[in-house]
Amino acid sequence: MNPKSSNEDTELKTEERLLLVDDNPANLQVLMETLQGQNYKLLAAKNGEMALAIARKAQPELILLDIMMPGIDGYEVCRRLKSDPHTSEIAIIFLSAMDATQDKVKGFKLGAVDYITKPFQPEEVIARVETHLTIHRLQQSLELRNQELQELNANLERKVEEKSKELLNTRDAVIFGLAKLTETRDDDTGLHLERICKFVEILARKIAKNHPEIDERWIRTVTSTAALHDIGKVGIPDAVLNKPGPLTSEEREIIQMHPTIGGDTLLEIRDQWGNSPFLARAIEISMAHHEKWDGNGYPFGIKGDAIALSARILAVADVYDALTCKRIYKDGMPHAKVKKIIAEGSGKDFDPEIVEAFMATEKEIEKVAQELRTLDENKTVGIATINRQKAMAAWRQQICEFVELTDQKQPKK
Which domain holds residue 53? Predict the structure, then answer.
């Protein structure tokens, strides 16, 4: 045993209290003389009622309990002590002239830890008392260690949670910043990403009760990856992306390539680093946010539930923001008119469930849009000249680093 454990045991032992219970004063005297000098604090009771009272107040570590006593016998005292949460952990050794097997079995069934038959040998009493007190000390030490371990685990879990939250916040901030690279090439989108992410969160929370897969983690992931829906526009020429007027059919075909440009980039990252919920949602949103419920969207013309739920949510949020925002080639539509357009698109352009969720939350969405547009009007948004190839390469590298960091994936061999 190491010195620390020895010191702890000695400290516990100096505080140990023994309650001796016997209606015979001579027996009590013998017990007192037997156990004196053993470094115990000895307490005495001459009947069951007194034993119960002392036990509740003094909380002894061990009771040596006679069975045959007037009034409440030892069995009943044991039963009451074990049924009381305040005294149930006290170890009890029966000390009795009753030596029949059934008497001993009854005592053990009531919760006693040992049974000594009278007349007893002093050495036997000392040995058995010390054995059970040693067990008691070990139990106390184990409980203390368990408590310390629980506290350490709780602190570790708290630190891990804090670090995980920090990493997620960092990932979200960097991903959002990288997504803004695309937005800076489009001079009049303003706080489009901020609005889209908020709209998506509102709609996701509204439909959550109908979808078991939607939990807080899913909502956070979709809300974060919503910012990546148009990252493929990094690969669209400036002349097409910023054209101040209607697009030609050829130009429209070019700009309709942005979902696959973004999606293919994310697929490359997934193939290199493995899948994760973050990448799965990002791919869904980037690839399918221009698909339509009736199959008349692009780039694949898929329809209905074949379109990922995350992309169906994004589709409504994106159209609402696009129609209500002022652009260099058009004025923004009023909320009421856009609300009507979205309602008319239910079952055609949009998932009816998402449209229903939009109608139920349209006041909240309108308020968010107004607040962010007011903020947007007070900011100066400039046009950044971006080299598309370098931007795409930097974007891929940054996404890889943060997917690896936060999702703890390893490259495929």
Answer: 3-149
Average pLDDT, the chain: 84
pTM (2 d.p.): 0.56
Beta-sheet pairing, 62-65 with 41-45: unpaired
End-to-end CA distance of the chain: 50
Residue 172 lies in a domain: no
Output the pLDDT for position 396. Answer: 54
Same domain for 141 and 229, yes or no, is no
Structural domain includes residue 269: yes
Cβ–Cβ < 8 Å for 76, 48:
yes
Backbone angles phi, psi at 324, to 5 degrees: -85, -15
1 — pLDDT class (breaks 50, 70, 90): very low
- Helix extents (H) in 15-73: 25-35, 48-58
Q: Each residue of 372-402: pLDDT tens digit?
A: 877 765 554 443 333 444 445 555 555 555 5
Q: What's the token pair of residue 373? A: 């547009």
Alpha carbons within 13 angstroms on the beta-carbon side of residue 315 total 31
